[in-house]
Structures
1.
Amino acid sequence: MANGLASRPELDRDRFVPRAGLVRGWVDLYLTMFRVAILNNIQYRVANYFYMIGMIAEPVIYLVVWSTIARQEGGEVGGLTPGQLAAYYIVWTLVRQMNIVFTVYGWDERIREGELSAMLLQPLFPIHRDIAFLAGWKLVTIVMWLPIAAVLTLIFSPALDVRPIDVAVFAVAIWGAYLVRTMLYWILGMASFWTTRGGPIFQLMFTAELLLSGRLVPLSLLPDWAQRLADVLPFKWTFGYPIDALIGQLPTGELVGGLAMQLLWIVVGVIGVRVVWRVAIRRYSAVNG
Amino acid sequence: MAGREPLRPFVLAARFFRIGALNELQYRANFAIQVFQSAIALGTGLAVLALVFSQTTALNGWSEPELLVVMGVHILMGGLIGMVIQPNMVRLMEDIRRGSLDFVLTKPDDAQVLVSVRDIQVWQAVDGLTGAIVIVFAVAQLGGAVGLGQALLFGLAFVLGGLTIYCFWLILTVGAFWVVRIDQIVELFEGVYQSGRWPVTIYPGWLQVSLTFLVPIAFAVTVPAQALTGRLTLGTLALAAGFAIGLMAFTRWWWRFGLRRYSGASA
Amino acid sequence: MISPQTSATSSEPAIRVAGLRKTFNVPVREPGLRAAVRSLVHRETREVRAVDDIGFEIGAGEVVGFLGPNGAGKTTTLKMLSGLLYPTSGQAFVLGHVPSKREAAFLRRITMVMGNRNQLQWDLPALDSYELIRAIYRLEPAAFRTTRDDFIELLDLADLVHKPVRNLSLGERMKVEIVGALLHRPQILFLDEPTIGLDVTMQKRIRSFIAEYNQRYGATVLLTSHYMADVQALCRRVVVIHHGKILYDGELAQLGARFNATKTIGVTLVDGEADLSAYGEVISVEDGRVTLRVSRAAAPEVAARLLRDLAVADLTIEDPPIEDVIERVFASGSEAP
């Protein structure tokens, strides 16, 4: 009986994919997670659709207010016509879906329900779980979004003038936005390791984001100082930039520059997640387990 | 029973408020948090108004102080919803789902009244207060004196609006629990309720109709705001009153109907 | 020649623990508003020693029962050994790894099952979650399938793994959960109350599965359970812990001898019942059968006297039930300084 380990060294070798398959291992992990997420999403497709439709109220309100102003002010506000505003807020609905990441409020439950411990027992840095799962989820969401976009287009007749390069950059940028926001909210959510009253901190962040990301209004409508502030914060790259990339007729330099900024924020995010995670887990391992 | 004692609901509500307050006073930190959150929400609202009026001088005929009135009413009504209506409806839906409504049905008070006032979120009163302050401030900015008559009209329109929103929630709660999850209804409502930050008259026709009769935001926010800004016509007020009374009658019937179904299912 | 990739050599025990300690700082709340305000600035805390200087070694392939009342420090110890908790001081080595470093190579070789842990996707059939586990642990597909199908067959899960987990009963869920926890064929199993809340048949099922896994793969098992039946069926050795200290570490069979210096003698007399209180403490009198409790040392002599003095139809000498023994151990432990 006590011979287990010594006599079975080959166990390790036939169980695990050898190191040469490292890349394949990651691809396999993400694909498997996509599958799980898609199956999950499809199970609740009716409720999810309902939810997506509910989320349209917000941009429709913004759109109505700003196109009313544009019409009043001789057909333009801050250089945007009602048609351009309509385009902005319709693309908005997809970017908003891409912006959905693991909620900052979820950490408290993860800690309380022991879910975090289960994650810590697995040989995988847990953020991959969240990234892969919600990315798979969004694959379904994008398909479900198309009819919504069609209906909104019929109602609000947006002015669309899109070049192939815009589409290409947009297709990359929405995923860049997703990654930046995932890491931002991971770092923020980890406040739950220190306090159960994270609400006010979270809300401050939501508000800053609402105003400075392009979610509330296109950033060009903000006063200069606010626009400059938005430039140095990550929010804009998760919301306003992808929308403008598709419909804003940006010069190629700005299109590519935006992707570079996303990359920069992703790098910052990775470092931030690593650092905060290490401190947070040290704290968790000291008291909770 | 409700007919014989018309003030009974308010007496009960006051009693539950007292209990809630006594409970909550132990958690003063929640008060601080609520003040903070109300302040942030107010700041956001003011920032949006400032943005709008940096681009224009009036929105569809509404001046800045007038829109501030709308915002104040929106916050005030939001406080009422968050304090009384929403928590009770969320709890009712949970009770229906778990089959634990029997505890309420066996009490000697009118069940509809009881399920509507038993859970009161005390700190939400902060939102109500914020709304009231904003209204007072905005009315002062309007310059023209708001007479007693206008104030009374506003009070009436606000009560009618509150009742209408309450009926809307109860109808939804009784009717929709098997379709969707409650947190989704809450989220959906909160999304749509944001439309009330602006007078519903700015929305396109089909949306105006929906926001008046489907989700009665117009009666809850716009009409009371109209009363304070001298826009309220007798016709609109009559419509608000008629709609509120009709909806209350329907809600009563719908509640009884739902209750019969509930008893049938749990027996 | 390629040397085997195991960190533990045959001379090294699978688990080695020395001077392990874990203290928690629990906030002390005094009543009143003033104290509450003061606590915002300076929090007064009290030190609680959950695990207080324990040490043991467990050899590869051993199945050891970890016994103790609630709050004795069992779960805390398991969490330290699986890397979820940092020890306050002392050493723990598991397969040559320091658990708190949580190296991937370490995590791949252990598993921890907790009563309410759920690593399965709630809305999907367990099979889908198993695929995910395969991807996370990077298991070689063919070996994974063999293992999975073996386990499914052993626990008779063929139908259950196709149903969404939310539709399974508690016991069924525990079975699919345990399979999920063992798919990567860990060498060390930390099982914290694996059978809690399950009915007797299900407990037996899980117990025999754990035994089978241990036999087949020579895995080391450290198990806590409220059910003595689990421990008796699986563990030859037990470690008894109380107030964070080890009270006993040795063979389960010897536990009685060590802590319970009593035996029970059952006597059936030919001519009905009689008052036997002169021979020992009478525990029960039932259907003409008298049960006596006597000290372990005196048992043979009392039995001889009974046989000599009375017309005995039947006489048995037994160890008391293990539950009673454990109770005594804890009772003695709490008296100890």
2.
Amino acid sequence: MAAMTLLQARGLTRHFGGLKAVDGVDFDLGEGEIHALIGPNGAGKTTFVSLLSGRIPVQSGTIRLKGRDITQLPAHARVRAGIAYTFQITQIYAALSVFDNVALAAQSRHSHHLKDDAMEALAGVGLEGRAGQTAGTLSYGHQRLLEVAMGLALKPKLLILDEPTQGLAQGEIETFKGIVRGVVPEATVLLIEHNMDVVMDLAQRITVLNFGNVLATGTPEAIRADRAVQTAYLGG
Amino acid sequence: MKADRALVLHLGVLAVLLALHFTAPAYHHTNIARIMVLAIYAMGYNIAFGYTGLLSLGHALLFGAGLYGAGLLVYHADASAPVAIIAGLLAGGAMALAVGLLALRTAGVAFMIVTLMFAQAGYLTVLYFGSYTRGDEGIVIPRAARMLWGLDLSDDNTRYLIALALFATALLANLALAQSRFGRIMVAMRENEERSRMLGFNPFTVKLTALIVSGLYSGLSGAAYGLMFGYVGASLASVQYSILPLLYVLLGGAGTVLGPFLGALLMFYLIDYASAVTDAHQFVTGAALVLLILFAPKGILGTLRARGLKWLP
Amino acid sequence: MDFGPFLLLALMEGLVTAAVLALTASGLSLAFGIMRVVNVAHGAFFMLGAVLAWFVSQWVPGPAALSFAAALVICPLIVGGIAALADTVVLKRLNYEPEATIVATIGLLYILEQAALSFFGPDARPVPAPLNFRIQLPWFGYSGYKLMVVVGAALVLLAVWLILRHTKAGLVMRATQIDRDTARAFGINVDRVYAGVFAMGAGLAAIAAVLIVPIQQAHYLMGGDPLLLSFIVVIIGGLGSLRGTLVAALLIGLSDGVISTFFAPTLAKIIATLVVALVLVFRPQGLFGTRAA
């Protein structure tokens, strides 16, 4: 890869009792790429990104963001350092207005033009017309978009999206793909995704996890052609 | 504009209170002065409970810190009233910091019990050092010590106006806090701690800051209460005084700026009225707690806000 | 008196405290363990048991032993009934949401104390002991009734343990404790179990009060100390663990007897409350519990 490395993980490990959820994973993210993380259920994808975002502490291994060791940094400090995480199960402030949801994200990075920045993030996902609405009254698809807007408003270096298209209609998925393409190359996107069409369409590189280990990493074409991946995951 | 409408409402309430100074009969005049001072305490409680979601059962410790911080200085060291009030304010904040550093390692039910236990320890400490605090019997602050820049706090008129000045400052500061960026973060912490953490906010720092602000309010109220009404006693630091602000806030509306005052006003007169017709005023407190938590957990202003007054801060 | 006999006396007094405390605290522990309800009104249930025992002693004619036996049956039933009612009318409607439940039980505490004040009055009133003999030891005489309290409390605790471990009702309770929804799916009437457990917890406090009231007198504010001590015991023993509760009750009761014989009781209480707070902060599983995964 010609691009600079944004994030580098070495020997990342997390066991739960006897379960090796993540077992000595090495992983690199290039700046400005869209990288997809795939693998069968229980492969350790969510645990892996939780280690990156700091929601779960690392047992051993190191994580570097632009060369800086962030392994011991608590989750909130990693967000400030530029790693944004959107939840697999939608986590918005249902009782607050749509605007407040995004404004909270914007003020986390000490935005000086809170209103403009918040509205810009909303416009980025097409929700600018609903700023005054109570977030909990949005449709499910719009709540997912709001969650992405909160990620955008953080202006992150790395945006981690955990199964963002789950439960979305086909039309909403198309909108979503457009949004993700607009995020790069200013930011890097790491995407956990089950929908193979979305993955093949968006990702420049793909990493396949299986039983807590990296099975393969490469371009969509290379992954499609990989024998091991075919047997383990794509079902031949 | 949203902010302007809210400001007008709050200034209006203050204007009515000023008008009452000239019109209210003596009995109500004294009551309202007392209610305003207690409302400062309830506002402080609301900053922790209503805005940040920290349900403490031990705020009497913070109120008591202000009460005794000011009272002991005046009684034993002949401090002047302004010094005593500031000392009380700071004592409340410092106590909140100390309690917060420990109690905020817990959450939910454990937080409630830990704060309850700390407050109980504080109350017992007041009793234990009875030779200084005069325990249950309490300290009567002499009239000479209740002078604020030449103003006599034991005089009804002065007392009312000073109470109003403190209340107005506390209320407008509360309004500004609620509409500030930090106000939004407090609410975010209450609504969804994990989401807030993943937006880059440190839950511990946010909660500790809110608790300290809450402690400053409680300490100020305790100090003012002691000096204005001339009495500093252990019963004012007992568990009843931890439940009182909870009751006021639940009734008026948790997480609203005017709710604590409204709750204090209504509850004070409800108990006052009940005491006149029966001696069972504890029953009123108990029944109010149960009925509110069952049927109106948002309180009066919280319900109004949910029913359409969305702009209410 | 020499130090040795003095210590023995302190330990015997401590044993009485521990026995009554174990009963009261196991009631609190039961409600918390099975329903996850922190019952702030538990001390009020205790007080109610003692106050009702006084009423029973006034109404039931004949020897003190007869009215005492009647109180031992009637008081826990009435108190348990009130608790079951409170559970059904209030706690169930709150869906046992922890913080709301605590606020509601605080309200309940106020209501019960007011009721006692209104109907029983502000004075402390004695209830006669069912038996009156002293055991003469070489150094001092000791109340036979106090020893009976220890034996009585132990018997009741044994019965509770047998019910929980070896009856169908106990099995149902334990199943509900592990998973409320699964229990419901298996046809267990969870509402009834909860009302029953809450009643049983309150009933245990009432039995403890009936046992202690001939020594202590009945008063409408007497619930404060048992509540505080029960909290201490339940927290130090590990929230919801009945065995931990018993061990902690013995420990606290005995040390309370000893400490308050030699030190100022207020100081002992200050230390105890601070210890409890710190245990919750640094070792929430209790001193004897193991951390849940």
